[in-house]
Amino acid sequence: MTPYIGKPINRVDGVAKVTGKAKYAAEYKAADLAHGWVISSSIAKGKVTRIDAEAALQLPGVIQVFSHENRPSLAWFDMSYKDQDAPPGSPFRPLRDATVKYSGQPVALVVAETLELARYAASLIRIEYEEEEHETALEHNLHRAREPKSGVATLLKPPPPKPRGDFEKDFRAAAVQVSGTYVHSAEHHNPMEMFATTVVYEKNNKLTIYDKTQGAPNSQLYVSQVFGIPFKDVRVISPYVGGGFGAGLRPQYQLFLAVLAARELKRSIRVSLTRQQMFTFGHRPACVQQVSLGASAEGKLEAIRHDAVGETSQFEDYTEIVVNWAGMLYPAQNVTLTYNLVPLDVYTPIDMRAPGGVTGLSALECAIDELAYKAGLDPVEFRLKNYTERDMNEDLPYSSKELRECFRQGAERFGWANRTPEPRSMRNGHTLVGWGMATGIWESMHMPARAEAVLTVNGKLRVSSATADIGTGTYTIMTQIAADTLGMPIEDVIFRLGDTDMPLAPIQGGSWTAATVGSAVKVACEDLGKKLFKMAQKMKQSPFADVKLDEIVFENAHIRLKADPSVAVSLLDIVGTNGGRAVSETSTSLPNMLEQRKYARAVHSAVFVEVEVDEDFGTVRVTRAVTAVAGGRILNPKTARSQIIGGMVWGISKGLEEESVMDHQFGRFMNHSLAEYHVPVNADIQDLDVIFVEETDTIVNPLGVKGLGEIGIVGMPAAIANAVFHATGKRIRSLPITLDKLL
Ligand code: MOS
């Protein structure tokens, strides 16, 4: 019975969020709370030679100024514990020594009785530096590109597959060829909620930490390892996150600084970053890509070469999957894919929604469009002609792949058949109209996780797991899964998350949470159900004494006989036999790797976009877009649609607006505010439509869901660029497509 799964249930956390009841990391109070203010380095590379904090320290109410000069010694400064999402290399350790590795690096923390005082005191502190030459421009350093180092984190981000066939030979012989260089700058995370940590210093030296994170257990592990504190003395709580998108996959430096200060001062403290400082802890890396494609005269794609060079820091090798997608999407026989890094004097890049995927597809899917034009084929027809049921990198069949249906339904909804293929052939009065499309793909991952299910003495179901809800709808879909699995009315089910006292779950990322935590919730509720059934069998005159588990159902808070539903025992009566105690079960869900590894597993999309381009001004507006997604089972069409719409909006942002502009003279990101770092406003977003095509998958995970967090953005920028070409006849290979590029 699934009365809730598949229904557009409203967000169970919606009211708390819109009424302000939902509290975020910087909103928790503590008696005697002190406030920290971070001082960021004004140089990109060199050394701090002098910190003059005297004037600041003389102000009444200023408690301490922490820097490398007076920080406590921690074993961590000389060894190298890493967080769950750390790339290979040596993690950044704030206040370790006088070295400055990037602009904006935290070099001191001012602690005062109030936030205003801490901020004012920070303005009085004089810091002198010895500057060294820095290198921050990716395009000037491409000659230094080298292969990434590998490490544990690379398990989730495998390097490109070995070349197959002979690209060079086949490309030279191809009847139709395209070749182009694609670039995009760095982009920064700008969720509504800034990174913040409130550390509550308890009497017994225990720490209760409210942290903005995509995984409370990751922050707990970090604090425990870095400061050498036992797990039991560090509790991390993070029930609400005001937008995550990848930046919270790693503990950020305000967590370190807040814990350091709290332990030294033995009092509670809050450290919150400013909007400007949100540009100092990792970004989507700038990337330069070269794509060359060769096809037969009939439009059969035969040769693919995709080379990408991304930036990283001097101390860690951040990697993402940029080029592998070509081999997953197209069945060409001659394929060469390469991925290299250039270390620069910047902070280590960090995952940002569909990391690598949206980067790579933004180039590949434009090149495919160009090739389709050269081959004289409609872009949809070209993709159907070059369709594959197998991931050619691994030579494995897809566990399911309804991408064909995405093309068909998406094209129909959009009205693609009415398109005239020639560029500049469609107009709306004065403006040029362009229709473009692209394919999207993202891996469907499944991780181990745990959950607890409790039936309370009042007959309510309480389920928990230490996962996060970064705005994805996790609270809601987990409540639905729990309610359906144990046959409970949804009003009697509560799901809680974001607390390290709860059973362990991985960081929320990679679009894996629905599959991962959903499976754990399902198993925990099933196990609780079995326990309750056994208890029911032991009840006096139990109608189930000789009944087997597969002969009963859980329905409407009762266990019922399938053959005769009037034979039933209520869950409330069952828990009533437990001596006034709740009944609980904690379970682990592990991916069935033996079965899963026989298949490639991915979510797919087809994206159709209409743009209007004003030729006089070079302005581009996305007037409508349709995304058709093959995402397996859809748990909640409302939250699912919201995920895809959010991804599409970000795709418009990446395609047309978003860009971190660096002044290489200073090695500093200059547009570090929402006034100058452009993201779409309401007026930029017009008609967005989402289709979920039917797709059944029994392999990906027990729920058959594929994850929707990232797929919404993946194909958008390419579809926009292709629409701009259709409108104007101009191939813009650098994102975002700002008006200067069209004039
Ligand atoms: Mo996502 S970039 O895995 O939070």
UniProtKB/TrEMBL annotation:
Domain of life: Bacteria
Gene Ontology molecular function terms on file: iron ion binding; oxidoreductase activity
Gene3D superfamilies: Aldehyde oxidase/xanthine dehydrogenase, a/b hammerhead (3.90.1170.50), Aldehyde oxidase/xanthine dehydrogenase, molybdopterin binding domain (3.30.365.10)
Family matches, as Pfam families: Ald_Xan_dh_C, MoCoBD_1, MoCoBD_2
Domain Aldehyde oxidase/xanthine dehydrogenase a/b hammerhead: 19-133
InterPro entries to which the protein is assigned, alphabetical: Ald_Oxase/Xan_DH_a/b, Ald_Oxase/Xan_DH_a/b_sf, Ald_Oxase/xanthine_DH-like, AldOxase/xan_DH_MoCoBD1, AldOxase/xan_DH_MoCoBD2, AldOxase/xan_DH_Mopterin-bd_sf
Protein name listed in UniProt: Xanthine dehydrogenase family protein molybdopterin-binding subunit
